[in-house]
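Q: I'm writing up a methods section and want to include an example of the input and output format. Could you take the sequence below and give the corresponding predicted structure tokens, formatted cleanly so I can copy it straight into the document?
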Amino acid sequence: MKRQLRQLTLGITGTFLLLGLIACQSTSPTKKTKVRAAHSNWTEEHFQTAIVNIGLEKLGYEIAEPQEIDYPAIYVSVANGDLDYSTINGERAHQEFFANAGGQTKLKQVGVLTAPLVQGYQIDKKTADQYQITNLGQLKDPKIAQLFDSDGNGKANLVGCNPGWFCEVIIDHHLKAYGLEDTVEHNRGQYITLLADVITRQQQGKSVLYYAFNPHWISTVLKPEQDVIWLEVPFTSLPESQKNITEKDTSVAGKNLGFGIDRQRIFANKEFLAANPAAKRWFELVEIPPEDVNTESLYIKEGESTPEDIRRHAQEWVTNHQDLFDSWVEEAQKATGETN
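A: Here is the clean output for your methods example:
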């Protein structure tokens, strides 16, 4: 009788232990949770997403193949819960996209992935020096504008960015605010393709005028102060959604570049963050310096641009920052009380 009672007690104890183990496994927030991300066709963002996803994998998440969606649709997809997060948030540049998708009601900006982000207008140094051009406002003079005419219509051709990107909106706003619509036309299209033409023209000794963004490989090919210069703008003027940005916010090294100095942040669905404290903490911690994004950008320009290439670059970046990376993972694990 005592033996039977002991066997029954052990059986019940074992059952409770097994149930407890199953409960712990089933409620662990990282187990069997598939994380869905997206980036635009800006290939450098694929590298940043890959690094973030490697960390999520280390935390035990299952990673869905990231989708390629353009702005501002990514914001709507994350807000609606079709996606969980994206690395593409320009804290200032994308204010309007963020707000229109539901803002703080549905979304949350987390951490600072890469900073600073610098934008503005550049021209070739040869033309700048020869004609003493330092300010975009000087293109109001038809004779100055004509120096940058690449299609023969008498207007300067300002190479802009992809339709739908917020830089397109800002460039159009600037041309109106500075009275340049009669002398400057905004060429928009695939930014990488447009830049290829800029480089060719500059190498041929022709004048070039284009929108520049850093970090990006363009600054490694056309080097500021050596091949090109940043133009100042007459005064700070931005679209309504950025009306709170001041001249201090648009100035770098004493030059008013006209665009708010920005930070790239991760943004995520608020419900996803609430349910996944480890992922939220990871998003808060991970950082990728601008110079590392520039290095990756140059790899991509030189042809290492396949998904396999970018995944390899991301893994190499993790290896080169292993101690720091591991400390971030360990800290994120503490958000749920989990350790490896």
